Amino acid sequence: MASLPGLEPTETAATAEDTTSTDTRKRKLGLRRCTRRNKVTSHDSFLSYANGRWWKVAGVLCLVSLLAYIFAPLPAQHFGGTWLGYTLGTISAGLIVWLTLLGVRKRAMTPGTWSLKAWTSAHVYLGLSLIVVATLHTGFDLGWNVHTLAWALMMIVIVSGMFGIWFYWTLPQALSENRYDEDGAVTEKQMIEQLRSLDRQIHDAAQPLTAEDAAVVEKSLEQDPFDGSIWNRVTARYPNCATRRAAATLREARAFRPRVADDPLDRVDALLTRKEAMLARLRRHLRLKSLLQLWLYVHVPVTFALLAALSAHIVSVFFYW
Ligand code: HEM
């Protein structure tokens, strides 16, 4: 798949390793350096990082906002322009800017108190808390205007983030299951090598075929296994698969010919069938890998649209105020 520029993450939340494992190694070597991060094991997912620290912080933020919304004495009804509205709005805008900075943080491999795992954990939970904090900021006064546009874009970013979490939660397991067969685990590189080896065998076995049959087989050998649109990749459906077409054409040709011993068509057919199975596995692998990134194609561009709408919202509020 042609990957979109700028979205090739240097490190993802799914792959991020907390540097605590390094700390543990240092401790074993006698290099004692007690930091709070030593308490966190490298097996922690970013969702349960530090015993759910950011889940709790986000929960408290939501609770306090909700209690203030219910009990704060306001002269009129709730809306963004009350003192509470401004407070919740400022917190929300600050959070949105900080959440956006994860993109910068991901690309800066900085050591220190804030590991990428901690940052991502805070990102997820504080991002979710915006559903409560920013919605209470609006006072449910939504309409067809730039203010609601900013809120709607924020909700789209948040929902796409939820999809991201779901993919990170489920896909690595599916990826590893797809890589296993009776001989153990195969890497993507090995899958490609096996395909190349099958291609060489098909090429040799197809030598005795008629020019017409050989031409169909040739198409399968020429087709790049990575060829295909993003849609093909995400659905793992390749209607123009030359290998499938070659196998079907040869089977049809064989059905109308008398059976002979050591028919080269049989050998080519068997090899094409193996290639089809190998291709199916590689395509499942590519599909799962694409899904791990696909949601970011919504999450990141809509974040920038959100920043634009948020700026317009803030400027218009102060302009009309
Ligand atoms: C308005 C709120 C949000 C904004 C502005 C925002 C923005 C961003 C940005 C700019 C990135 C960096 C992407 C990159 O450069 O590759 C990112 C990553 C991420 N976001 Fe959000 N986000 C928000 C809310 C959420 C929520 C609510 C969730 C989860 C429920 C979430 C989950 C993630 C995850 C898991 C990553 C890390 C992806 C990775 O490391 O591969 N985000 N977000």
From TrEMBL:
Q: Does the record's keyword annotation contain Repeat?
A: no
Going by the UniProt record, its keywords in alphabetical order are:
Membrane, Transmembrane, Transmembrane helix
* Transmembrane domains' residue ranges: 54-71, 83-104, 116-137, 149-169, 294-320
Bias regions of kind Low complexity — which residues?
Answer: 10-22
Give positions of region: Disordered.
Answer: 1-26
Q: Does the keyword Transmembrane helix apply?
A: yes
Q: What is this protein called?
A: Ferric reductase like transmembrane component
Q: Which organism is it from?
A: Croceicoccus pelagius
